[in-house]
Write a structure and sequence with these properties.
By secondary structure, this protein is mostly helical. It folds into two domains: 3-157, Serine Threonine Protein Phosphatase 5, Tetratricopeptide repeat (Alpha Horseshoe), CATH 1.25.40; 187-260. Helix content is 72%, strand content 0%. It has eleven helices and no strands. The longest helix has 40 residues, at 221-260.
């Protein structure tokens, strides 16, 4: 690892709110050349700290020490956006410039570290950054396990589909309006009376014809003929009159039932 990189790491850890023990562990790993272990610890602390920018800076230094300038530049740029100290910002900008000059554009850091950074971002609720890291991991020479982890992370960051509630079943409105009163009808009762009277007259004529026919049986020949003719006439007339009366009764009944079903006129 370069002297500039180690010095920058010391400066970053010194001004950061990280605990002294964490700063010492990370620095010891750097000093011992254990860059992958240092990067792993940095990722864990970044997640545990709620996303402190110093760990982005330390992670970028580890990535550069491992020969991965593209990953280092990406982390430095994010650390630069979080930095407030002018000297730290100037140091980060210098590292970015130097890494871009030295880097060949190839990514040598194992994809598993990129996935870990993405997992840390997702755990902090930063799904945009996490998704970008997952996709960057997929563009590297990732193993099947690393690619699966990246795809699972991208899927986990997708917003859940909106819940579509089934429409409530329509309830038919109950018409509580009282039924209208029946239409007033004065003609039907009159027709019922007339029909009853006419039918009664027809019945009386039929009854009279029967009586007249019986009386003809005890009369002489001439009287028998006269009574029989009279009885037949009364019978025919009675049947006709009774038929007319029944017709009037039926007409009145049908009219009364029909008008009962119709509402009254306003």
């Amino acid at each position: 690892m370069s002297t500039t990189c180690i010095t920058a790491t010391l400066v970053a850890l010194a001004v950061a709110p990280a605990s002294p023990q964490v700063r010492r562990e990370i620095q010891d790993l750097y000093d011992g050349g254990e860059y992958e272990q240092a990067l792993t610890l940095t990722i864990n602390e970044y997640r545990a700290s709620g996303g402190e920018g110093v760990f982005l800076y330390a992670g970028a230094n580890a990535a550069k020490a491992l020969g991965d300038c593209p990953q280092a530049t990406e982390l430095w740029e994010r650390a630069l956006a979080k930095a407030d100290n002018p000297s730290i910002k100037a140091s980060i900008a210098a590292e970015i410039h130097a890494c871009r000059d030295e880097g060949s554009g190839e990514s040598s850091l194992p994809a598993t570290f990129v996935v870990r950074w993405a997992d840390a971002e997702r755990a902090l609720g930063r799904c945009d950054e996490a998704t970008a890291s997952y996709r960057r991991a997929l563009r590297r020479r990732a193993t099947a396990e690393e690619a699966a982890a990246a795809r699972d992370g991208i899927e986990a960051c997708k917003p859940p589909p909106p819940v579509v509630e089934a429409p409530a079943p329509e309830v038919a409105a109950i018409d509580e309006t009282p039924p209208p009163p029946p239409r007033r009808d004065r003609l039907s009762p009159f027709l019922l009376g007339v029909g009853t009277g006419v039918t009664g007259i027809g019945g009386a004529l039929i009854g009279g014809s029967v009586i007249t026919a019986r009386e003809a049986d005890n009369a002489g020949e001439q009287r028998y003929r006269d009574q029989t003719a009279r009885a037949n006439t009364m019978l025919a007339t009675g049947i006709t009159v009774a038929s007319v009366g029944v017709g009037i009764l039926l007409t009145a009944t049908v009219r009364w039932i029909t008008l009962r079903r119709r509402p009254a006129r306003p």
